[in-house]
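agent> Task received from the user: take the single chain below, predict its 3D structure, and emit structure tokens. No templates, no multimer pairing.
agent> Plan: (1) validate residues, (2) run structure prediction, (3) serialize to tokens, (4) report one or two observations.
agent> Step 1 OK, no nonstandard residues flagged.
tool_call: predict_structure(input=
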Amino acid sequence: MTASRHPPLRHTPLRHGWLAHAFRAPRTLRGKLSDRGSLTQRLQAQHADFKVQLLTRGITRPNRDESQALHLRPASRAYGRDVLLLGGGIARVFAHSVLPRASLRGGWNGITRLGNKPLGEALFTNPRIRRLGLSLRRLDARHPLYRAARRHAGFTARHVWARRSVFCLNGHPLLVTEVFLPAHDAL
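)
tool_result: status=success, residues=187
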């Protein structure tokens, strides 16, 4: 089933290790992981030199847990975008977005042209976009997003924490995952 023919999305049941609460996360990360506000705005407020570095974009096959969250068939293709969010000259967050191909029409069509612009600005300034619940997870080398973040950011930590949520615009979903990088280790 494609996202456009699926009934309106609700918060997806938690599977594949994604949690609804940050109680297992280190205390220093709990606030960041559970904050429903814009991570982009938070980083911009903390770092005057905040910038987005585009890593990859284009049609891709979502990870299994992403397909499930977006109600896509496992072999479906989607538009993917990976970026690093930098502040203080350090990679702070690896951000990964997945947009079903059916969602590329209409309101989400500008996403393919963002380049080095932050997605967060678009998500939190459009009143028609609504955010569904947050899910959290500790990622390690078994998860493809850990491996992608490590490849691009070069950290050595054995695990990292991530949060994700689905944003909906006119019934079309966009899944955004933010992987919090070990700032002291990610140069």
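agent> Step 4: summary for the user.
Residues 1-14 have pLDDT under 50 and may be disordered.
agent> Done.
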